Give the backbone structure.
Amino acid sequence: MRELERTTSWDLVGLSQRARPASGRATLLTCDLLDADLVRRVFERWRPTIVVHLAAQTYVPKSFASPAATLTNNILAQLHVLEACRALDNAPLVLVVGSSEEYGHVRPDELPITERQPFRPGNPYAVSKVTQDMLGLQYFLAHGLRVVRVRPFNHCGPGQSDRFVLANFARQVVEAELERIEPVILTGDLSAERDFLDVRDVARAYRLAIEHGVPGEVYNIASGRSYAIGTLLDKLIALGAAPVTVKTDPTRLRPSDTPRVVGDASAFRQATGWEPAISIDQSLHDIVADWRARLAAPHSAMA
């Protein structure tokens, strides 16, 4: 098995020949999921019993800038993973992680969004996630592969990339209090309302989906409550130590968007007993604390 010779922003966590320990709890490996033969050989070597497929180009603005790359990366990566799983004598359970972006343009009278909501994807990333979702269903129906699908709604929390809205705002708040930038927060559309969960609640939901989810089924993972982006920005600013002003940045406005999104996760709660445990206020507090720690650390300019 050859090791991956190139890595790009499209190549996410997977598997490779060289393994290295991570805090004594896991082994991290790297694999180009676009290389079908390499993926097959890695799965033959390691024979996983559970696969949580999260690898994807997830940044919506980048999907508009590079639609072909987004579709190719996200669809082929999952296809290769599913084929490698199917080829094993004892095929693993596969958790396919979709997105609430699959639902796209939802009318006010269709809220809260259930799993029966029609897909109206509004960006190339959403189209790629619809395809990943349907590939998972097809491999269950056609090949009997044990696939559980989930559609998480927006999530936030410490450690998240600043490509995502609340992490981006929090970083700007902290940089302003550290006097590294002008005290101006650049924003997109602040009127949009989204259903946010803490990433730690989402990770727990994935574990419960693996343990209790029914193969072939799909589950929303949502809080059931929506928050205006502007309201959450005000809360983040209040957590900062310096006064800031807010300014709309046209480059941060999406070509298409939905005014309000809120999900119905009753099917998932019934199947697993899951409930979100971390409040939005706690999430925001932890996001700001995380950015203070990251920006105070050596080489923080690379955070």
